[in-house]
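Illustration 12: Cytosine permease.
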Amino acid sequence: MQKEIMLEDGVTKNEGHVKEDYVDIDYTLTHVPKSAQKSWFAIFAVLLGFTFIVTTMAAGANLGTSLMLGDLIKVLLIGNIILSTYVGILCWIAAKTGLNTILLARYTLGKVGSKWTSIILGGTQIFWYAFQAAYMGKIFTASLGIEQYFIPVTIFWSLFMGAFALWGTKGMEIVAYLSIPPFLYLAYKIPAVSIETAGSIKNLFLIEPTTTITFAAAITIVIGAFVAGGTQAPNWTRFAKSPKSGLLVGFLAFLIGNIVMAISGMLGGLVMQDGDMVNILMKMGIIVMAMLILIFNIWTTNTTSAYSFGVAGAEFFNKPNKVPFVIGGLIIATIMAITGIYETFISYLTMLGIFVPSLGGLIIGDYLLNWRKSFPTIESVKFRVVRYSNLIAYILATLGAYLSSVYNIGLPPLNGILLAIVLVYVMNAVFKLLGLSDAHEVPEGAEVRF
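Figure caption equivalent — predicted structure in C-alpha cell form:
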C-alpha cells in the first residue's frame, strides 16, 4: 500500500510523486481560517462597490415620482437604517463563525432544509444579474443610438462581467477599487443637475408627485432594493478579522452606499417625473458620461452577484468549486436579460422586501437564542436533514410579513425579521415541550467556533 500524505494547500504526496488537487480558496463549504482573513478596508471596498448599484438608483427614481421630497427622505432613512442594521448583525455572525450565509442556514434549517436558502438567494442573484445585464444593454445601445443591437450587446456584457467572478474575491476587489471613484461622480452629478433644473433646493421640496404610494410600500421597496444582496453580505464579511469589524463594515457600507444611490435616483425621478433611470439620464443630457461610469458600476455588482450564485450552487450540490455554477448561472441570467426581465423590476423588489428578510431573521434568531452565540465547527456536526421547528417558524414569519403588506400593518420587511427571530425561539420551545427532537447531533467535546 502506498502511503498518501496531505500537505498544505491541497497538495497530496504519494510515494515519490506529488499530485495537485483542486484548492477551494473561497472556503465555500467550511470556515474561513485566520490565515485567509482580510483587512477591513478590502472588505469595505467590495461591499461599498456592491451597494453602488444602478438598480438602487432605479428604485429611488421610481419612488421619486410618487412622494414629495420630505417624505422621500423619511422613507430613505427609515428603510436604510432597518436594512443596514439587519445586514450588520448578519455580518457580525459571519465574521464570528467564518461561514457564508448558506452555511449559516445549514445550522438553522438542516442539510436539505438549507437548500431552500441556496435556491432563494442564488435565484435572486441570478435575477439581479439578468436585470443589470439588460440595463447595461439598454443604456449602452440607447447612448450610441444602436437599439437594434440590444440582444448581442447585452449578451456580450453579461458574459464579460461574469468572467471576473471566476477569480473569486480577488477579482471583485480589483473591480471594486476601479468602480467607486467614477460612480461617486455620477452620484454627485444627478443631484446637481436636479437642483439646477428645479431652480433651488427649496423648489425640490415643492414638487408634487404624479403617482401615489403608501409609506409602508415605499419603505418595503427601499429595503427590497438590496435585502437579497444584504442577506449575502456574509459571503465577504466572513473574511473579517473580528466580529466588530464585520458588523461595522456591513452596517456602514450598506448605509452609505444605499443612501447615496437612492437619493440620486429619487432626485432625478422627482425633478423629471420619470421612473426610468435611462430616460432620466437622457433628459439630463449626461447619458454618454453616465454610460462610461455605469459600465464600472454594473460590472462591480454583477461580478459579486455571479460570485454569490456560484457559492449558492456549490452549497446546493455540496461541491467545493463554484466555477461550474457561475457558468450555469450566467447562461440562465443572459437568457433572462434578453427576454424582458427589465419590465418586472418594481414588482420584484416588493416581493423581495416581503419574502427575504424573514430568512435572515431566522438565522439571527437561531444563532442568538438557540445556539447561544457559538457554533460547533461544521466538520464536527452531524446535521439533521431538516430542522422542522425552524422551517415552520420561517413559513409563519413570511406569511405574517405578506399579510401585513396586504392589510397595511406596520412595515412588512421589519415584521418578517422580528417575527422570524421570535418564532424560531417559540417553535424550538414548543418542539421541546412535545418531546420532539429537532437538534443536530454534536459530539461531546466538539470544537466550538466563537
